[in-house]
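Lecture notes, unit on protein representations.

Consider one protein chain, 320 amino acids long.
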Amino acid sequence: MRKREDIKRIAVLGAGTMGPGIAQSFATGGYEVCMFTRSDATLQKARSILHSSLITFAEEGEIEAVEVETIFKRVSYCRTVEEAVAGADFVMETIVENCDAKSELYEALDKILPEDVYIASNTSFLNIFEIMPERRLPYTVIAHWYAPPQLIPLVEVVRNDKTHPEVVDMVMAILNKSGKTSVHMKKFVPGYIVNRMQMILNQEVFYLLDNDYCTAEDIDMAVKASFIPRAMIIGLVQRFDFTGLDMSANNFRNKSYVMPEQNYHPKALFGHVEKGEYGVNTGKGFYDYTGRRAEQVLAKRDKQLFEVFRVAKKLMNDPV
């Protein structure tokens, strides 16, 4: 089994939404990275996004200005899977969220990779362990990143029942060396931790909007001024210790909360979609971004996220 010091080269398969940021993180961690895409247009866009992001990191003091070109040059680009994984010690798959496409890729990888190469998938919900060739399962995990991946610290690492424990430890060590905060899930469940939490919140958001209890702005202001910053200190579980487990138990006994029906169809969401209002990229969603380029909105978001996560890192390193 490969040791941490053996991991030199990482293949990132997929150069779309997540690929450049993931490649940037590994390259910043000192790894040589080859990013795969079949499309020349996607390749050129990925290069541009990666370089622009590194400049932003330098402007924010996250890396030295002299490191921009050094890190950028650690990433190469390949037009075939075979070329991308040649000599790779770790393969990070981040292609389209489609079972058939992933299955086809895994079958191809099984034919060309040495047996002890680590494989991770960035899938958000799919159980890729059901379509991964059997002999690859001991070296396979899910490593689920969040967008923008170069900036959001969290990566959820999910094992299957055949994954070697040492493989989980190794993947988490690679991620930590690349500046990520990794958490371990002992078995697969669709959505993992954060996406499951967000789906519950999504239901309530749309229930409140559809029934005209408040506006989108009211919801956002309420959570920004309450449990979201509080969670930076005491999370979602430790807060029960401060509230009192007896009081929390009484809330469950008294059935003080009734969840909206599970098959809820959010009119507030689909109303915007039907009008072609998809969010930042179209200039309008729940909020109006008219007159501002998407790049401007994203840049402002990223700079504010830098500030938030600097504080978050400080607080996570000194828990209550």
